[in-house]
Design brief:
The structure is a single chain. By secondary structure, the chain is mainly alpha-helical. The protein has 2 domains: about 120 residues, Winged helix-like DNA-binding domain superfamily/Winged helix DNA-binding domain (Arc Repressor Mutant, subunit A, Orthogonal Bundle), CATH 1.10.10; about 140 residues, Four Helix Bundle (Hemerythrin (Met), subunit A) (Up-down Bundle). Helices cover about 55% and strands about 5% of the residues. Strands 1-2 form a two-stranded antiparallel sheet. A two-stranded antiparallel sheet has the order 3-4. A hairpin with a 5-residue loop joins strand 3 and strand 4. Helix 4 runs antiparallel to helix 9.
Length: about 270
C-alpha cells in the first residue's frame, strides 16, 4: 500500500499527462490541477469536502462506487438518506452515468434500497437485519476459514501478523475505516488459501454490509472481541492447532452476535 499518484482534486482516473476527455469524454473532468502523492487506501480522513483520491487507473464508475460505498459504511451517508444521482454527480465532478452505474451496484450489494417508484435511499440497519447479516457472514467466513486452514504456509502466517498489527494499530489511532479493512483482510488471507474463488465472491457480496454494522457498533469492548479473537486464532495456527484455530475463529462471530443483541439500533421512521 505504497504511495500512488492521484490528482489533488477530482476523480483519480487519469494519468498526470491526460488533459483530454478520457473515457467518457466529459469536458472538464480531467483538471490540470497540481498532482500529489497520497497513500491509498484508508489513511486519509473522510469528510464531505474531501476530493476523491483513488488509485489510477480506476474507471469513473469504480471511483464513484468506492467513494459512495465508503461514505455509506462509515456513516457519512446515513441510513435512510436519499440518494440523488444528479446531486452526487455534481458533488464528485463526474457525469451522471457512472453515478447511476455505481448506485445499481450498491443496490445489488444491499447498501442502497430502490423502491418501486425508483426512490433510492441508503439501506436502513435494524438490529434484526444486523443479526441476520452476522449469521450469514459467519456461515460463509467460517466455511472459507475451515477450508483454507490446511493450506496455510509460513508466508500466510507472516501476512496474518501484518494484518493483525494493522488492525490493532489503526484501532489505537481511531481509524476505524482502516481497522475494519485490515480485519477483513485477516480473514481473506485464510479464505483465499482455500482456493475457492466462488466462496470469496459470495463473501465479498456481504462484507461491505458487515463492515457497516461494525462501524455502527464502535464501543471499545466490541472491538476487543475481534482483536482478542484474531490474536488467539493466530496463536493457535502458529502452534499447529488448526482445529482449535477454526473453533476460536468461529467463536468470534458468536461473541460479536451476543454483543449486537444487547445494542440499540434506530428503527426505520425514528428521528436521527
Amino acid at each position: 500500500m505504497g504511495g500512488q499518484v492521484v490528482p489533488a482534486h477530482g476523480v483519480g482516473v487519469a494519468s498526470a499527462t491526460d488533459t483530454g476527455g478520457g473515457r467518457g469524454g466529459r469536458a472538464g473532468l480531467h483538471r490540470e490541477d497540481e498532482w500529489e502523492i497520497v497513500v491509498w487506501p484508508r489513511q486519509l480522513p473522510l469528510t464531505e469536502s474531501n476530493a476523491m483520491s483513488f488509485a489510477v487507473p480506476l474507471t469513473r464508475k469504480e471511483a464513484v462506487l468506492r467513494r459512495l460505498r465508503e461514505e455509506i459504511i462509515t456513516g457519512l451517508l446515513k441510513p435512510g438518506a436519499l440518494i440523488k444521482d444528479a446531486e452526487i454527480a455534481a458533488r464528485l465532478g463526474v457525469s451522471i452515468t457512472p453515478v447511476r452505474e455505481a448506485i445499481t451496484q450498491l443496490a445489488a450489494e444491499g447498501l442502497i434500497d430502490i423502491s418501486p417508484n425508483r426512490t433510492r435511499q441508503v439501506t436502513q440497519v435494524t438490529q434484526k437485519s444486523a443479526l441476520e447479516l452476522i449469521d450469514v457472514m459467519m456461515v460463509l467466513a467460517c466455511a472459507g476459514f475451515e477450508w483454507g486452514v490446511d493450506n496455510i504456509t509460513d508466508k500466510h502466517l507472516a501476512t496474518l501478523h501484518v494484518k493483525l498489527d494493522e488492525f490493532a494499530d489503526n484501532l489505537r489511532r481511531g481509524n476505524l475505516t482502516a481497522a475494519t479493512a485490515a480485519g477483513a483482510d485477516f480473514s481473506t488471507v485464510v479464505i483465499m488459501a482455500s482456493g475457492n474463488r466462488e466462496l470469496q465472491t459470495h463473501v465479498d457480496l456481504v462484507v461491505a454490509r458487515t463492515l457497516r454494522v461494525l462501524a455502527l457498533t464502535t464501543e471499545s469492548d466490541v472491538w476487543t472481541v475481534w482483536l482478542d479473537g484474531y490474536r488467539q486464532t493466530l496463536e493457535l495456527l502458529e502452534q499447529g492447532d488448526r482445529t482449535g484455530a477454526v473453533e476460536r475463529y468461529r467463536q468470534i462471530y458468536h461473541d460479536y452476535r451476543r454483543r449486537v443483541e444487547t445494542m440499540l439500533f434506530d428503527e426505520p421512521g425514528e428521528d436521527r
